[in-house]
Fold these 2 entries.
Entry 1:
Amino acid sequence: MAGTGTAHLRPDGEALLRVEDLVVEFSAEGGKVQAVSGISLDVVAGETLGLVGESGCGKSTTGRAIMQIIKPSSGSVRFEDEELTKLRGSALRRIRPRLQMIFQDPISSLNPRRKVGSIVAEGLDIWGTGDAASRRAKVDEVLDAVGLDPETARDRRPHQFSGGQCQRISIARAVVTEPKVIICDEPVSALDVSVQAQILNLLEEMKARYGLTLVFIAHDLAVVKNVSDRVAVMYLGKLCEIGSPDLLFAQPAHPYTAALLSAIPEPDPERHDDEPSLLKGEIPSNTNPPSGCRFRTRCPRAEALCEVEEPTIRQVEIGQYVACHFPLAPGESLETADVLGEFDLA
Amino acid sequence: MSEHPGVPLLEVTDVATGFETARGLVRSVDGVSFSLERGRTIGIVGESGSGKTVLSRSIMGLLPHKGVVRSGSIRFDGTEIGQASPKEMRKFWGDDMAMVFQDPMTSLNPVMKIGRQITEAIHTHLDVTKQFANELAVSLLESVRIPDPERRMGEYPHQLSGGLRQRVCIAVALACGPQLLLADEPTTALDVTVQAQVLDVLAQQQRERFMAVILVTHDLGVVAGRADDVLVMYAGQVVEKAPTATLFHHMKMPYTEALLRSIPKLTEPSHTRLAAIPGRPPDLVSPPPGCRFAPRCPYAQDKCREEMPPLVDGDTPDHQFRCWFPVGSTPVSIGPSNAGIA
């Protein structure tokens, strides 16, 4: 899973947000750990890019590195013709109103001691947008847009709201500064399915109403498919496959995408979940990632080449790009027979 | 195998559990009945706050004594345990019934080696030598497919990944050969690929040991492939109960339908608008007088808001639901068709 290469990027200048060869390293016991190892992504205006993968694949780190909450070790993040990795301090803060973020845990991401009205207004207050009355009108407008009654919500504190309502407040806080791009980091994974549907619908409404561009990070493939125009699958800090969701989910080219899809429990009682799952073992540690393709230790199709050479991203179908030496042909599925051999369990 | 042939392993009758709070009694579980045979799996499904976890803890006897009001009968293999104290319940834990919890990190002792966490349970309930307990622990770790079990015995929980930790929890629960295993959201904290592996391990162990399993989850996808029967809970009550295939194909309760519809499906094109359930569950201190789902139900009529529907039998055996105007019998039609569900 190489993920090196930029074949999937749109021509320069078309993208609103363009990430090239992003590397994020953390220092850890006995050296450095690469959480993200050379990811390239781009998002054009009005698009939703879904970022999926298992825990530890680096998807959240990628989101935070784009925001410059974590400083990338190398690589470039260009947003509206500005190179974010070069910005510091006030120059970076100037970007923030146009590049916002929504976090996973709606309750802990809101200050419990402050009233909802002031939480949502903070971005406007910092920038001194308009006068007090127009700021208040703007706060009321976004609270109303996310489905909360401004009159009652404004003077309450986060603990008086449910998880789903707190996520609505987080969305209101993100859209109030009229951003161009919002990075949503697992915005629905802490919510019940019924509330999850409400929030996903709300994000689609907000996107249409405020002309937003979204980067949507999640581990749930069905959720990502529902909201995305383009989906990128990550594994161990690298990109495996990127493409339009309808294509990618109907005929995954990367064995990892196929394995992820096969692991989803579908609400269908006729499905035989008793068959052994296709993917053995667990994601290896990124302190010492496998050589060549990083997925080879769990891949049923791995051959000698995968160990020595890292695959680069190439196009397999129009709008579908994969980083694999032996991708699945359309219509071909991962054979259970392939995986019956024992694999290196992490 | 059973001491009382012909008697279901677990019989739960009209169980209610409430918590005393400053605002009044919160009726978390309100009159739930079901029975479970050996070798079978029952799935308990519902949103947060539907009472599914309190129900499973009521069965295990894991609730605090103070401030908890319990009623109804729970019979395990013919023995009444509905009002048993934790001290009395200790006789049942381990070798009769065991539990796997949601969070594998907090349910293991962080400063105790894996091996000892398993042998502790074995020594508590079985009179065996230290060496035998150790060998048993290694074979348990092997049976839940933990690679290199001897080495893992000497490690601490933080050295294991989430999926491996949950397998250790399953090994601990299986240590004394329980007849009933309660798994409360066992895979919710895990990745989807690891979830499939852990559920495979559970299913295999159940077959080999002929255990009864109660699988508590909010994910209808998980119960669809794994449970024989499903109990759908809403606001402390059972609102539908059926064999799994019947529930998915001939559901009667609008809540079950709404829950299934709200899940994003891989078969649908992207940007399909989801059928969300408006509003949220009622306050369990003073629930509405009629059907508890009525305020959120698209089919609700006046009768639903005034009178609580009883749990009635459906067209097929073992199918029960709680609705005045069940799905498929009302002329009212809303939203997208049922095509995707039926």
Entry 2:
Amino acid sequence: MADKAKQLPKDAFEPLSDGAHLDNEKIAAPSLTFVKDSWRRLKKNKAAMISLYILIFLFVVSFGSALIPAFSSISTHPNLNNLPPRIPGIDIPGFNGTLVQGGARVNAYTGAAANHYFWLGSDYLGRDLFARTLFGTRISLLIAVVATFFDLTIGVAYGIISGWIGGKVDTFMQRVIEILLSIPNLVVMILLLLVLKPGIPAIIIAIAFTSWINMARLVRAQTLELKSQEFVLAARSLGESSFKIAFKHLLPNLTSVIIINTMFTIPSAIFFEAFLSFIGIGVPAPAASLGTLISNGQKSFQFLPYQMWVPAIVLSLLMIAFNILGDGLRDAFDPKSRE
Amino acid sequence: MLDKDAPKILEVKNLKQYFNVGRKDEVRAVDDITFNVHEGETFGLVGESGSGKTTTGRAISHLYEPTGGEIIFEGKDVSKLKTKKDEKEFRSDIQTIFQDPYASLNPRMKVKDIIAEGIDINHLAKDKADRDAQVEELLETVGLNKEHANRYPHEFSGGQRQRIGIARALAVKPKFIIADEPISALDVSIQAQVVNLLKDLQKKRKLTYLFIAHDLSMVKYISDRIGVMHYGRMLEIADADELYAHPLHDYTRSLLSAVPVPDPEFERQREIVDYDASVESDGKQRKLVEIAPNHYVRAADDEIQMYKDRLNS
């Protein structure tokens, strides 16, 4: 073999033209930004996409219903109380206005109620449960937005500052967090009720107190890791200011942690509100919250089960959807799951 | 190749870099080292892992505040830069090429913005078009396609990424580049590519390098002078050829005896010289002594003669 190679004439080889090597460096694959790439991966996750659609649907319906004035969640009709669900044109037990009474199914829509349709039934004061559930969903989603807001502002800023400055400042800030964390949420809420009336503002303040702590801790841990990465050192050795490093280098690399953690803060905040309303120190009557609806429905669960089923299902749906979407986002943002 | 009378661009005097000072876990990463780098030369820094090479590099580029000693760059003490302007000037004069091409580029930034970071900080571009033009020129300088500017780092191979890192360092037109093991994370075929690129750039742009590595054959190929470090101390400094021909310190000899040679005959008869590091901590006062012209060895007073004999034997 070696001998043969030697016999090749000199002109058997041609030198490459100048710049030909540059072609070797071409990348044919289309350029994907981080967001596009993550979105592509999220779309492949069916459960997460369904959750996303459910959440969008709940958002649109619950906030859209606020625009219809006739659709009142608080107007009472004492003569139309405790009616089971009845939807026009549907004759399925449970949705056709019948109730099981004394072992037999009877039509509850008699007398004054004969011409009324409560899609999801009415409660003990004759209020439309459908409207009330939507109102409660609206409050839950509002709480979700509020919790996200505090996560993104206080939580992220606290974490980045604590991690980036480090040293004594970090130690001090972490001790403060631990002290805040050691006070149960419920105690904070009850103390707040000494100064404030029960209601949304009090709940928001209670959430502002503690909901961002987990975010701050995660962001701090991630910042500590990023801080010693070489690209941050490179930025420092170029003379970049700390403020710009935080915005150009830290924040973009923290996005996945931030988004994922937000998705897990939201359900716990929603549940916190529902819990407070359930035990009676949350949203005051006559306004509805999923918690108060469940609390009311639970009292007559054995006779009028639909009064608890409806808000309970919506609450579970909300929490499951946020959790599954959070899971999906975590996978989508994790570059290691790139196939 | 090297102009012996070239002015000193960098003087490191008794540099000490300790961490966790005064605590139980105090680490003396760099312990009293002194060396000079002349303009236009490549100074190689070798030593095993944890010997303080990288720390030395980072202390020079002022990423750490030195515990003691002085670092004088172009006549100015690095840790006493007063004005913002001086600081900025220094930052653009000294640049670092990092070890890990996967960690040294921000995964969320486009190549264009990574390279232009230094341009932005120092306002070196007149407008956006000028900035793009400079980035494209830099990409071509390091042998990359200018269409790469709009891509993200994860789309590149290790060698390409390292070249992006080099382009970023070159963007601010530095005089002095600290190459912190720029090739140890690359495979062998790409190593040559990057090292040759560094050599070309040195010629074209009159750069001075501090080349940190533990691959001795590569260091010999690129360096004019070499310093050997161990336990945060400088043990031997000499011209590259001199160091390889006449290693004086036991540690240098041990290091060199471990360099693989692509020759099975030789490899079969390889003699590994063991090094007993306890000699260093026997309490004797040692400092760098010039045994031969430009050949320094860390020695105690009573060892000087021994090293001189070694050189002549």
